[in-house]
Design a protein that fits this description.
With 80 residues, the protein is mainly α. The protein has one domain. 85% of the residues lie in helices and 0% in strands. The protein contains 3 helices and no strands. The longest helix has 29 residues. It is flat. 0% of the residues are buried. Keywords: Signal.
């Protein structure tokens, strides 16, 4: 009886885990756009010391470029 209850409980847990894995939707370009906007905002607001400011400025430029590319990808997928 105890083994049966353990087997049923294990089956229930494994079933729930597999359902959660299949139910999770993959990220979209729209999700990436939101996260990039948050990252850009954080980069622009970040306080850095002089030696790191050049790196932050480059990160801002690259993030802006990534935003442009993601927007192009969204437009391309919408036109199909």
């Amino acid at each position: 009886m105890r083994r049966t209850a353990l087997a049923v409980a294990a089956a229930f847990v494994l079933g729930a885990l597999s359902h959660a894995a299949y139910a999770a939707s993959p990220p979209t370009l729209d999700d990436a756009l939101v996260h990039l906007r948050y990252a850009l905002n954080a980069l622009k607001r970040a306080e850095v010391k002089a030696p790191a400011s050049a790196s932050r400025d480059q990160a801002v430029q690259l993030t802006e470029k990534a935003l442009e590319e993601v927007k192009k990808g969204i437009a391309a997928s919408a036109s199909k």
